[in-house]
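Review box. Two proteins, two foldings.
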Amino acid sequence: MSARSARFLKTATLAGLTSLALIACTSNTPEAKKTDGNATQAAAGSGSNDAPGQKVKIGFSAPAADHGWMGAITKATQAEAKKYSDIELIVAEGTNDVNLQISQVETFINQKVDAIVLLPFDGAALTPVAIKAMEAGITVVNVDREFDSTFAARTTILGDNKGMGISAGTYVCQEMKGKKDAVIAEIAGIDSLPLTQARSQGFKEALADCGLKVNNRVAAEFTVESGEKAAANLLQAAPKIDAIWNHDDDQGVGVMAAIKNSGRKEFFVVGGAGSANVMRDIKAGNTLLKATVIYPSTQGADGVRLARLLVQKKALGDLVEVEVPRLVQLYAPVVTKDNVDQYLPTAFES
C-alpha cells in the first residue's frame, strides 16, 4: 500500500466514526459534579437520546424525485421521522422550481416550525431565505448542496464526492495488482457540475498513486438514456478496457444495457451512489459489476435526527464535544460481494 493510500484509509476511518456518531447517540443532559480539584465537569445523563423528549416540528423540502437517489432521500427522511413520537414532520412537495422552494421555506417560517431540513435545488438561490429562517430562531440543517453562507444553517450534512472518486480509484488500483498498462475508462455525470468534477479529480488522484490514469472518458447526464449512449460511444472508441468507473448507478442502468449489447466481457465495472439493483447484481456475481461506491441517500434522514437533537439541546453521544458538529461529511465506502449485505438495507432503487 502506498503512503497516499494509507493516508486515505486513515481519513476514511475517521469519517466513518463521524457517521457512526449519528447512529449511536446517548443523552447530553449534563449533571454537574465536583472533581478532586474542586472543578466542575459535565457528565452525560443515563438516558438515551432516542427516548421521547420535547416535541419538535420539522419542515422538510427537497428537489423533485426525478432520480432514484433523490426519491430515496425523501423516503428515508419520512421513515426516520416516523420512528420518533416527538417529531412532527411537515414535508413540502418536491420541486425543481427555485422560487417555489423559497416559498416553501417561507411557509415553514410562518408556521413557526422548530427546524427546517433543507436540500436546496440551488444552494446559492436558497441561501437568503435560509438566513431568514435562522434569524427567525429556526434551526436550519442544510443537506447535500451547500448554501453560500455559514449563517444560513446551523449544521450541514454532505456526501463526499471527491471521496467517491478516491474510493473508486483505490479499488481499481487494488484490483489491477500492479498492472501498469491497464486501460481505465470513466463514465462521468454532467461535466459542468462541481460534484462531477470533484468525483473525477478524486479518481484521477487515486489512480495516479498506483501509476495508472484514465485512458478513455465520456460524460453522461445521470439518466438511463444518457448512460446507454455514453457507454456505447466509449465502447466503440476503446477496443480494449480493463476497468470502468461509472459515476452514477441510475445512469448505470443504461451503461450496463450498452455493455450487454456489445457482448464485451474483458473488463469489470465499478458503480457509483449505491443503488439496490447494483448491489443485488454484485451479490449475485453474474454481471461485470464488481463494486459500487456509496453516496449516502440517508442525508435527509440524518438531517432529521440532527435537527431533533439540536432543538432538544442534545449532542452526539459518541463525541466528547457537547454540541452537534457544524459540518458532518459522510463516508464513501466501496461495496463489494464481501460486505454488500451491510449496505443493502439503506440502498435506493434505481
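Next protein.
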Amino acid sequence: MAEEGEANLDALFAHIDDELDVTALSEDAAERDGPQARVTAPSVAVAGGAGRTIRNILAAEFGVEPEQVIDFLRSGDPVDRLNTAVEAIESAEEVTKSEYYGQIVFVRPAYRYRLTELAMELV
C-alpha cells in the first residue's frame, strides 16, 4: 500500500506544481485587454503561491511553511499523509481536487472459512 500512497502523492505534487487557481474579483471589477478597456468576466489568475492555493491550504493543515509542504508530505507514512491532505483539499472551497489522486481506504477482506479435518471426515 505504501507504493500506491507514493504514486498518489506524486500526482498530488504534480497538481501542486501545475496549479493555476482562478479567483473571483469584486462585482465592479473589469479587466483590460489591449489599449481599449473592455469588461470581461471578473476573474484573475493566481499562480506561484499567491492567494489560497493547494500548497497554502496544506501548509496551514500541517503547520509548516508553504515551501516545506512537499518535503513534509514525503516524510512519515505516505498513506496517512495523503489521506489527510486529500481531506483538507476537499474541505477547502477555493480549490478543486484532481482526479489523479485520492484517499486510500482499506477494506476488510471477506471472512474465509474452511472445514476442519473432523468435518471433512463426516462429509
